[in-house]
Design a protein that fits this description.
The chain is mainly beta. The chain folds into three domains: 2-62, Roll (SH3 type barrels); 65-125, Nucleic acid-binding proteins (OB fold (Dihydrolipoamide Acetyltransferase, E2P), Beta Barrel), CATH 2.40.50.140; 129-186, OB fold (Dihydrolipoamide Acetyltransferase, E2P). Helices cover 0% and strands 54% of the residues. It is built from no helices and 16 strands. The protein has strands spanning 2-3, 12-15, 18-28, 36-43, 49-55, 59-62, 65-76, 79-84, 90-93, 109-115, 120-125, 129-137, 150-155, 160-164, 172-176, 181-186. The strands form three sheets. Strands 1-6-2-3-4-5 form a six-stranded antiparallel β-sheet, with no helix packed on it. The protein has a five-stranded antiparallel β-sheet with strand order 9-8-7-10-11, with no helix packed on it. β13 and β14 (160-164) form a beta hairpin. The model has no long low-confidence stretch (mean pLDDT 89).
């Protein structure tokens, strides 16, 4: 049995007969009273995210999971289809099991998390950063750089995000898939 001191982002725990992934956590030691761990956890079966608090030293059961490399092939009425890079086995996944489906491009490599005992798909995780091309964006106004001003842009996958004014149509940008935000412009 593990305790709250073993909690890390991305670890999977068993809570109320369901598998939850720790999205973020914070150890809190108030001036008065006992320490506790404030967490944000995601149910891997339903995609629901909850805030949960554990007392310091609380016993937790970690779920055994395996991460396997897959490649995104295409999307159809069955869902998103992925292929195992080693066995060439193909599996379809529903959209809610993917952490950022709006940034998936054909041929993208992802990690699919499986429950080790049941061989059940728990989630699909894109790399933290992806590089995509801007297909449409209004031109920026010269001289309007006094503050952190952004404009909407549409990406090659159809997703829309806000980018700085100096980023133009046709350029490639790096996107953080966890925060779903612009990181930097990528030089070709």
């Amino acid at each position: 049995m593990a305790t709250t001191s073993d909690i890390k982002n991305g670890k999977c725990i068993v809570l109320n007969n369901a598998i939850w992934q720790i999205v973020e956590f914070q150890h809190v030691k108030p001036g008065k009273g006992a320490a506790f761990v404030r967490t944000k956890i995601k149910n891997l079966a339903t995609g629901r995210v909850l805030d949960n608090t554990f007392q310091a030293g609380h016993k937790l059961e970690f779920a055994r999971v395996e991460r396997r490399k897959y490649q995104f092939l295409y999307k159809d009425d069955m869902g998103y289809n992925f292929m195992n890079n080693e066995t060439y086995e193909q599996i379809p996944l529903p959209e809610f099991k993917i952490n950022a489906p709006e940034f998936l491009t054909e041929g993208a490599n992802v990690e699919i998390v499986f429950h080790a005992e049941k061989e059940e798909v728990l989630s699909c995780e894109l790399p933290q950063f992806v590089v995509l091309e801007i297909t449409f964006s209004e031109p920026g106004e010269k001289g309007n750089t006094t503050s952190n001003v952004t404009k909407p842009a549409e990406l090659e996958t159809g997703a829309k995000i806000n980018v700085p004014l100096f980023v133009n149509q046709g350029e490639k940008i790096k996107i953080d898939t966890t925060t779903k935000s612009y990181v930097e412009r990528v030089k070709s």
